[in-house]
Design brief:
mainly alpha; DNA polymerase, domain 1; hpI Integrase, Chain A; 3 strands; elongated
Length: about 325
């Protein structure tokens, strides 16, 4: 056993014992402990080494499970901040540390929805550590849920879509917004598409979504028309279905920037990729498509996730009530 570690441990024990035992008892206890410790290889472990140990194990497990690099980086950021600011290793974090940390973040101005997401990340991390037997107790169990006020979500109307199409300055922009609207693709899925993934004859496309899973999405005739016109203007060798002026694959930031500029020109509020997904889910639900089918189209594993995407206003809810329950 390292002499430095042994001496440090005994000094700490002496401080703990000196207020509760007599000098003779304390000396006897320390002597016994010193004898016992001789049989162990003990060393002091710094916070960073111990914290990184468990965090890296968890992130490696996510990688093995097939989680995306973006997701892993996101988990590393949130959990890294928790461990750094609490200055407590993952093995020693309690529910009180978590509450204090979240309360501090709320004071700093983080929204309840963001805090709730952080809690989900904590739950994944400490739940995994507990199941692996790396910690004796999961501190998230007694943390409690974070209530998030439900805001009324908006979807694009037919007029909104027409305004967007009329204000697109490039054919590629028009092809992108109609593709997002008809397929409900995530922006990362859109930029990852190659030309050979699109089957214009059968009006369908194979996309690779979260967890590296493939699924088939479908396009309408209007979208097919705009995509055909756009592809007819391409004379480059870039494999991407949608390319920039520099004939390179779009990145997610480029798509978001394009949509932001479009928003400023056409006067439609909050144009972002997920709003196209929500609009598609809502429109399909209004046409009585089974929720399981909508989930498959959007690439959701859980029906509950799909339900969160569907926006039903008062008039449509009333109309469906009258349809199923005549008065």
């Amino acid at each position: 056993m390292a002499i430095e570690a042994k001496a440090s441990f005994l000094r700490q024990m002496e401080k703990k014992l000196e207020t509760e035992t007599t000098a003779s008892t304390m000396a006897k206890v320390l002597s016994i402990m010193a004898d016992v410790m001789e049989g162990f290889d003990m060393r002091e472990v710094g916070f960073e080494e111990e914290a990184d140990d468990l965090l890296e194990c968890f992130l490696q497990a996510l990688d093995v499970q097939g989680r995306s690099k973006k997701t892993i980086a996101h988990y590393r950021l949130i959990l890294g901040k928790l461990l750094a600011e609490t200055k407590v290793s993952a093995r020693r974090i309690t529910v009180y540390h978590l509450r204090s940390y979240l309360a501090k973040k709320k004071e700093e101005g983080l929204k309840d929805s963001t805090l709730a997401h952080h809690r989900e990340v904590f739950s994944s991390f400490f739940g995994w550590l507990f199941r692996e037997g790396l910690i004796e107790k999961n501190p998230v169990v007694n943390l409690g849920s974070i209530k998030v006020a439900k805001e009324e979500k908006k979807v694009f109307t037919d007029i909104d879509m027409e305004k967007m199409k009329q204000n697109c300055r490039r054919l590629v922009d028009k092809a992108i917004i109609t593709f997002l609207a008809s397929t409900g693709c995530r922006v990362a899925e859109l930029v990852g598409l190659d030309r050979n993934a699109l089957d214009l004859e059968n009006l369908e496309c194979v996309v690779r979504g979260k967890g590296n899973k493939e699924r088939t999405v479908y396009i309408d005739n209007v979208t097919a028309m705009y995509v055909k016109k756009y592809l007819a203007t391409r004379n480059d060798t870039c494999e991407a279905l949608f390319a920039t002026r520099a004939k390179e694959r779009f990145n997610t930031g480029g798509i978001r920037d394009m949509l932001k500029r479009l928003e400023e020109r056409c006067g439609v509020d909050h144009i972002h990729p997920h709003k196209f997904r929500r609009t598609l889910a809502t429109n399909l639900a209004k046409r009585n498509m089974p929720i399981q089918t909508i989930a498959a189209i959007l690439g959701h594993e859980k029906i509950e996730t799909t339900m969160e995407y569907i926006v039903m206003n008062k008039e449509s809810t009333k109309m469906q009530y009258r349809q199923y329950y005549a008065v």
